[in-house]
Specification:
By secondary structure, the chain is of the alpha/beta class. It has 9 helices and 7 strands. α5 (147-167) links the parallel β5 and β6.
């Protein structure tokens, strides 16, 4: 039983499909109820068992409701994929909207905290759980204009390490993934920004697109599947990245028949 946040589009759909194809039951959550229903219909056509729960991960009461309703329906939660994210605001700090900046942190950092906090009692009681935080290479690379997103993701990486230490002895692993530059609406948003005469330089994202380096959500979903499965046993508090060729080779080997 897996809860996937931000599951109405982008990487969340790739993760959900990979889990469903492996026979997992999934609870999908996102702000867009319309998007969730469309994704659920697609997954059910593949034979999936799917629960949809519209929620904003920045609201702790809504996150708790997602966990409570999932438990009521399925009595356990094995996997949490903290995938929900927003890229905005894209602007220099001196020019940004403070409310939008803070909301970015609420979705990208505090949301994963809320979700983890709510599922931990369940996972501790089960003595089993997998928490996977979808982070970004921008947690390590500074890009002018992306201060909120980069700051939130850097915080998420460190939250991953600390939480992993705290639950290491109760059968729960916590890892983060830098999945690469995924071909999603977020990338479209980045390419749409007119940076004008500001210090913001988003040319790298145009280069990724023009050089055909964007990664399919379904390819990235395979990496999350590996982290959620038995192959990741013994790994916790780690930041996995699509640039790690040795790890990617291990994933290919482990999932060759799946």
């Amino acid at each position: 039983m897996a809860i996937i946040t931000g599951a109405s589009r982008g990487l969340g759909t790739g993760v959900a499909e990979r889990f469903v194809r492996a026979g997992a039951t999934v609870a999908l959550t996102a702000r867009s109820e319309e998007g969730l229903l469309a994704e659920a219909e697609r997954l059910r056509a593949l034979g999936g068992t799917v629960l949809t729960l519209a929620a904003d991960v920045s609201d702790p009461e809504q996150v708790q409701q997602v966990v409570d309703q999932t438990l009521e329906q399925y009595q356990r939660i094995d996997i949490l994929v903290n995938n929900a994210g927003v890229i905005w605001p894209i602007d220099e700090v001196a020019e940004t909207d403070p409310d939008e900046w803070v909301y970015n942190l609420y979705v990208n950092l505090i949301g994963p905290f809320y979700a983890s906090y709510c599922v931990l009692p369940v996972m501790i009681a089960q003595e089993y759980g997998r928490i996977i935080n979808i982070s970004s290479g921008l947690s390590r690379s500074a890009v002018a204009g992306l201060s909120a997103y980069g700051t939130a993701k850097a915080g998420l990486d460190h939250f991953t390490r600390i939480l992993a230490l705290e639950v290491a002895k109760v059968g729960i692993t916590v890892n983060a993934l830098h999945p690469g530059v995924i071909d999603t609406d977020m990338q479209t948003d980045l390419r749409s920004v007119d940076t004008g005469d500001s210090a913001v330089d988003l040319s790298i994202f145009h280069n990724y697109y023009e050089s055909n380096q964007l990664v399919s959500p379904f390819v990235a979903g395979r990496l999350v599947y590996w982290l959620a499965g038995p192959w990741s046993k013994g790994h916790t508090g780690e930041i996995f990245t699509f640039r790690d060729e040795a790890w990617l080779a291990q994933v290919d080997q482990d999932l060759a028949d799946s």
